[in-house]
Amino acid sequence: MGKPIIFLKESLKPDQIEQIKAAADDYQIIEASDSTNAFHEEDIVIMLGWDKEIGPRLLKNPDSKLKWVQSISAGVDSYDLASFKEKNILLSNGSGIHTISITEHVLGILLAEGRGVLRAAVSQKERQWKDPSFDYRQLSGQNLLIVGTGKIGQQLASFAQGLKIKTYGINSSGHPSPGFLECYSQKNMNRIIKDMDIIVNILPLTDETYYLYNEEVFQSMKKGSIFVNVGRGPSVKTDDLIQALENGQIRFAALDVFEEEPLPADSPLWDMDNVLITPHISGITDGFKEKLTAIFLANLDGFIHEQQLKKNQVDLDRGY
């Protein structure tokens, strides 16, 4: 039996690896990028990031010692949560790492669209001085519905209020959340959504949120509203979204995530003038590795000394 292994699928800086070594001197640190370091994968106890080849093998291997995986993303819908539960493997996510970047991404898009910056970029290419048909708008005073009132939703609500945007939230039970004028339960979303100018999806993907945005929901929206998705692609039934965009029910959609990624080249979304496509980049942030390492080190301390995690432990039944 070899020394227990911390397997680093995510590449870290040398000083960050040294911090991990200092905190876990009984463990061997294996970097996925180092192909010269031979090891027995059954000895992996902790995995930082998810190796799509080794990970599934360990879930099927009765000799596996895997006890904890630290995901680098907030969403964990790609993990086999049932197997994690069956084998008593802890899972923690990267919630909190992406709050500022996603908030700035959403507000940047809304400002650029409303003030005609997106249209101006097209006009510049066409050497057109001004598009007289463009309807300039201000964000101040508009109703913003943030679907998902976790850390990212709260950060977005806080920043939006600085722009005098009226912020409302949707969560599982309708419980109050910081930064929101009022929150509603997911089951009551269709009732409140008709009064919203902007709808932003930040929900994780679960059985309850799969295809949450379908024809019924889009038809319940205020005609001419804006839809932004920085949550999960399969929360949206793409064909129904396209129909809502074509008939003007939704005036503009900014999409960072999709049912199928990369977005297929033959998708009608590419050619729609009222759609902005960003290739799953809203969560990219500077200082990402520092933020991830801070979460990992806090959890590593809890795992070694208390056999429990201190931050962002995922409820394997709920999926977040």
UniProtKB/TrEMBL annotation:
Residues 108-282 form the D-isomer specific 2-hydroxyacid dehydrogenase NAD-binding domain. It holds the Pfam family 2-Hacid_dh. Residues 10-310 form the D-isomer specific 2-hydroxyacid dehydrogenase catalytic domain. Keywords: NAD, Oxidoreductase. PANTHER family: 2-HACID_DH_C DOMAIN-CONTAINING PROTEIN, D-ISOMER SPECIFIC 2-HYDROXYACID DEHYDROGENASE NAD-BINDING DOMAIN-CONTAINING PROTEIN. Belongs to the D-isomer specific 2-hydroxyacid dehydrogenase family. This is Phosphoglycerate dehydrogenase.
